[in-house]
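Hi all, long-time lurker, first post. I run a small reading group and we've been trying to get comfortable going from sequence to structure in the token notation. Rather than ask abstract questions, I figured I'd post a concrete chain and ask someone more experienced to write out its structure so we can walk through it together at our next meeting. Sequence below, copied exactly:
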Amino acid sequence: MVAGLEEEIERAHHEIGELKRREEEMLHKMKKDSDALEFMVDRRIINKFLVNYANPNSSFEVKLQMLDTMSKILGFSHEEKQILGLIKAAGSESIGATANPS
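-- Answer (accepted) --
Happy to help. Here is the structure in token form:
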């Protein structure tokens, strides 16, 4: 009887260890997945921006604001913002010089 209880306790300890290991694996996977989601952008947002940007009725100022907002959402570098004309390159005039620099 005592040997049976000791065996059952040993199985329970083994099962607890296995559950803890699975818990750690799941927590690691959730963290990894949430880190990956940080860099995902909703396609609907980009679609709306692109359609509005290409709309011939959108003013130049609206297009600059849309480019500026997209550059923030997508995490553009300083150089990429210069290429888009959102900020001035050193010693040159930018079309987007009136846009908010970021």
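A couple of things your group might point at:
The chain has two domains: 1-40, 41-102.
The CA atoms of residues 74 and 82 lie 15 Å apart.
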